[in-house]
Amino acid sequence: MSTIYITTPIYYVNGAPHVGHAYTTFAADTLARWHRLAGDDVRFLTGTDEHGQKVEKSAKEKGITPKAHVDATSALFRAAWDELGISYDDFIRTTDERHEKVVQDLWRAMEANGDIYLGKYEGWYSIGDEAYFNEDEIVDGKSPSGHVVTWTVEPSYFFRLSKYGPKLLDFLRANPEFVRPESRYNEVMRFVEGGLQDISISRTTIEWGVPSPSDPKHVVYVWLDALTNYMSALGGPDTELSRKYWPHVLHLLGKDIVRFHAVYWPCFLLAAGWPLPKRMFVHGWWVGVDGQKMGKSLGNAIEPLHLARTYGRDCLRYFLMREGTFGTDNSFSEKAFIDRINGDLANDYGNLASRSLSMLSRYEAAVVPERGEADRDDDVLRAVYEGVRPELIRAMDELALQRALASIWELVRAANKYVDSTAPWVLARDPAKKARLREVLYTLCETLRIVATWTLPFLPDKAAALLDRLGVPAEQRTLAATATWGLLKSGTQTQPGDGLFPRIEKPAEAAEPGDAVPTAKPAKPAKAPKPAAEVAPKAAEPAPKAAEPAKPAAEGIIEYDHFARLHLRVARILTAARHPDADRLLVLSVDAGEAAPRTICAGIAVRYAPEDLVGRAVVLLANLAPRKIRGIVSNGMLLAAGEGPTLELLAVPGDLPPGTVIG
Ligand code: MSP
User: Higher pLDDT residue, 266 or 121?
Assistant: First the structure.
């Protein structure tokens, strides 16, 4: 068991939370839930940043006190996180007395070390950023993030940041994990190597802040105030809580506030002689489809509560965790949102759950059967499970939430293939296959148990509902319980229930990229399957109703799951020769990342000479039924555009390994 203290930035209280805020918070919550699943001792902190000139100004404009203003907006954040299912252990406000006390302690400790002195601040200050900027950072009278700057002259206390540059560099060199991903670490290194200048840490022109303990005419600079929240929420550096959780810290933050966290914060702590946190993880920004900043122009499309109320909070969390890359910016569009939910949740995960549980209900009265007769298909699925588990754990250790989900989905998709290849509805028709059917149904339930447990941090409501239906006891809802295959008890009564993830009916306009305002409605959930006795066994088990389109599709339009049935793969041409019996054909051997090369007959001799083709990376339709063409069996088809002498084989970049999935 290990200990981890996960923090989000504390949010400015100048409006309701948007998708960007929800992203950091969901990511932190997902990590917190993951660590709890792993049995770790977790503390998860979030909160609000309530001091500063901006707040003072907006309160004045509204004609209310700053305190009344921050009480109202901080409550909006808290209520939003509660509604979104954020499992924070503590919610800190910089107006909390417990916080103000620790800010003053930090100031005193830095001062006692001789690192604070009185001077005069002259420079550009941006209220929008609550930050000072150097001359060379100002473009057209604005800060790099576009806020207006004003020339400010006032007496101010300074912090000897310059003194800590070399110490910080030593620390960063010794701890390359301190800032992740690596690109952000490098950015910080370059900045610190460039030399640090002392910074102003107090203001006299505002009142709304923590008074400096040595000179109450000054209030503490908002960033020194705000960063201290991570320590003040533990009661200071010398409490039972901080002895337990500090420095086992993971700060999550957006790319715009790296400098404050990775440069100022450690230097403040070094000056006070307080220990440094262990690591911080920096994510990119969510922007509108055209790169617009999150803000009023995007309307309610980016209000997390609106999205959660329309589609469900698990769907919102899943989308953000699955699509958000930690390294780069991400654009938010309704189309991408709906596609993800329909593809991954309704089709893949939802189908697997409803198919499996409804077959169990039909063939075994919804009771998990005894194990039966094993076969090769089981080994294939087990091998996927064995491979996914360590990859998932590795991805979560590296905070690669997106990769973690992709690896869980390998098992989900393999299990759906397992249903297709074992065809339980065919087994059910043959009394001699009873033992085989039992094994298949058991295997499906066990796979669902494992997938549901792994997805608890990503889909807390739905995964828990699935575990309830499977009858998995609370003490088995742990990461450790997914290390053993076969824990699900035979004889457990399950409950089939409605589809877990209703498909979202896609409004026509949602197909247009750029349409940011969600108008789609979740389709009605499928009805619970009928009891076993009422349902005649079918020749084939189609995907359950939950996955079917709510309205008949327009002519020629296919659903995503039709497309998903095509196995398009990268392949490399190893050899090429003319077909002995047909002038228009070439016989190729291609590497598709499988145990042995495949033979393909392709009608491309009029365009390509065999020697032109060797070494090319091409697109292979890998699951086309084998076909004998003039005596040679062709296993698949290469995709090409055009015809005859102008035909071109579709190419993919040569560095993609054979077998890479295209889709
Ligand atoms: N109050 C400071 C943080 C102090 S922490 C000691 C602050 N607040 S903020 O509300 O402006 O931003 C909080 C977090 O939300 C930051 O990590 C920021 O990067 C993140 N985001 C704000 N807008 C965002 C997007 N559009 N997309 C992703 N994250 C974004 O900064």
Answer: 266
- pLDDT of 548 above 50: no
DSSP state of 264: I
Residues 452/467, Cβ–Cβ less than 8 Å: yes
Q: Is the separation of the CB atoms in 550 and 361 below 8 Å? A: no
How far apart are the CA of 9 and the centre of ligand 1, in A?
7
Q: In angstroms, what CA-CA distances link 343 with 170, 261, 348, 357, 522?
A: 48, 38, 6, 20, 14
Does the pLDDT value for residue 662 go beyond 50?
yes
Buried b / exposed e along 479-509 (16+ C-beta atoms within 10 A): bebbeeeeebeeebebebbebbbbbbbbeee
Q: Which structure tokens are listed for 262?
A: 């990775």
Inter-residue contact 36 to 2 (CB < 8 Å): no
**What residues does ligand 1 touch, defined as CB less than 6 Å away?**
9-12, 20-21, 23-24, 49, 226-227, 229, 253-254, 256-257, 285-286, 294
CB 441 within 8 A of CB 356: yes
- Mutate which of 256, 293, 321 for ligand 1? The one with the most ligand atoms within 8 Å of its CB, which is 256
Strand boundaries in 284-377, DSSP class E: 286-288, 330-332
Tell which atom from ligand 1 comes closest to the C-alpha of 226: 6
H or E, element range at 123:
strand 116-126
Q: Please identify which residue in the block is written with the tokens 């058991």.
A: 442
User: How do residues 282-314 score in pLDDT, each as one tens digit?
Assistant: 998 888 766 666 655 555 556 889 889 999 999
**Considering the entire predicted model, what is its pTM?**
0.77
- Measured CA to CA, the distance from residue 129 to residue 499 in angstroms comes to 46
